[in-house]
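Hello K.,

You asked for the raw outputs rather than the summary table, so here they are, unedited. I folded two proteins back to back in the same session to keep the settings identical. This is the first:
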Amino acid sequence: MTQRTEQSPESGFRHSSDTALQVEEPDPFQLVRMEELRELLRVPGVDLTIPEHVERLFVDWCCRWHATPPTERWNPMPSLTALGIAVGDLARAQRPDLRWCVVADCSPTTLVLADAHGRAVASPLTDIATWWMSRELAGITVLLARLAVAPVTAGRHAPLQVRERSGARSVA
């Protein structure tokens, strides 16, 4: 099924006009992988509970990646996934009704935030990846503020990277 979306000018989240995604709880392997990815972000001077710290890390890594010649760039997927998980964790801290879920029958594994009714309401991994590739550097704190007030349904989703470790720790 093709999902129709229209981008909100206020955020990177998408408004969806089709049926809700089927989501399920992450399995133990996925939960462990999410924690491994969080470890990429645990560097001196970064408190993952402070949005500005996560945004500063995103800006630093994104700028370094774009400043690196294309043939020498690291694979950004583990870094993007880790940053997306951190942003989702921050959203969950503001909105206790949200929980991490995976989109059912989706390969590769796709993480979303869902509400208490099992409706996917945010796809922070997708937003981080979109901002990274387009060099949009100031959005995390704005996005969190908007999600806290008016969540919207996610229309596209980024996969959970499960196989690689990034060299990102060395560039922070």
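The second followed immediately with the same parameters:
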Amino acid sequence: MTTDPLFARQLAVHTLLIARGWHLAGGRDPGHDPFADDPTAGWHYPASFGGRQMNEVATTTPVRLQSYFTFDGRANETFALVPAGNLHTNGCPTHDTAEQFVPFTPAGEADLDRIASLLDELEPQAESLDPRAAIECLYFGPCTH
């Protein structure tokens, strides 16, 4: 058991996400990643888009459901979830990826109950999202989904 609160918080979230089928970006040990300082460090949900694999094309390929530690608009460290879909608020609300922040508890821990509740909503949406529909929405305007 670690006494480092940052690592303990990361490990608690890591354990929750891995149990739900998420992958750590890059497959590294969570204690070795500076999550709050690196926006690319975090986890992704491989079942997004029904588990389909896609070639990555910058600004075109929809993103998988993902999460990471970051800072909110007031420079407070927080946990964030980004729904699967189109980045940069392009397209309709179904395909949008508005970042959702989960503040820490008063004790400074990750709010695992709140994270799990959001995942109960976001994971099925990510699994059923059609990447082609998201790309068409991005390029041809907001769809009616």
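The radius of gyration is 16 Å.

Happy to rerun anything if the numbers look odd on your end.

Regards,
P.
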